[in-house]
Design goal:
Length: 236
């Protein structure tokens, strides 16, 4: 994984992710937060390269480099934790191709107390640099899996989860649906949404009420609305 910025590199260390190499600019090392982070990296035995601003601009994927980037191994697989506890709440994103959306969904999943995220089908890599930045470090802590969408739904059912599909129309408002107990929320990709067969196999269909002429919401916003309604119900 490519980690760009103090926040992500520090979160990787806090999550005990193996960082293999870091690069910093001479100027950035004068900043207190980066200086302290390089000390922490050194204590972990991480090789640190001092590079010029031009080199940093070449290796950093963002428009304005933060002054520190690092390479790290992906977190160890925690697929068995996706459905942990008596009332798991998993999010299955299907064909969500925008990495920023995938990252935002992982972030809101952690914030709302979901037990894990499955990036299924043609979804963007949740450990790509843009998705990692979108998750603000949540991808380093939340159990994440990938693979076939049908297989993900089958796995959720084996863990006693009801399957709730977010659809743009004809579903019940999430505020009228019981979102307690073992649950897997399906969120479809930009434009096409969920495949028809997957939608048909769901136990419940949810549609977020919207004022005309708005017909749909961003995938991450949809996930946020439903997950926080689930959190509200589960903490009453």
């Amino acid at each position: 994984m490519l980690l760009d910025g103090v926040h992500l590199v520090a979160d990787a260390l806090a999550a005990n992710v193996t960082v293999t190499l870091a690069a910093v600019t001479t100027a950035s090392q004068e900043k207190r937060d980066i200086h302290e982070l390089t000390i922490a990296l050194s204590r972990r035995g991480v090789e640190i390269a001092t590079v010029t601003s031009a080199v940093m601009e070449a290796i950093s994927p963002v428009h304005t480099p933060s002054g520190i980037v690092a390479l790290a191994h992906r977190p160890a697989s925690r697929a068995n934790d996706l459905y942990a506890g008596p009332s798991p709440l998993a999010v299955v994103v299907v064909d969500v191709q925008d990495p920023g959306n995938v990252g935002a969904i992982v972030r809101v999943a952690e914030a709302a107390g979901a037990t894990g995220v499955v990036a299924a089908g043609m979804s963007a890599n949740p450990f790509g640099w843009k998705a990692l930045r979108g998750s603000m470090g949540s991808a380093l802590r939340v159990p994440i899996a990938g693979g076939d969408a049908d297989a993900a739904v089958d796995a959720a059912k084996k863990h006693r989860c009801r399957i709730v599909a977010a659809v743009p129309r004809s579903g019940r408002p999430p505020f009228d649906v019981d979102l307690r107990g073992p649950l897997a929320l399906l969120v479809g990709g930009e434009g096409a949404g969920l495949p028809a067969a997957l939608t048909a196999s769901a136990d419940e269909h949810i549609t977020i009420p919207m004022k005309s002429p708005v017909e749909s919401l961003n995938a991450a916003v949809t996930a946020a609305v439903v997950l926080y309604e689930a959190r509200r119900q589960r903490t009453l």
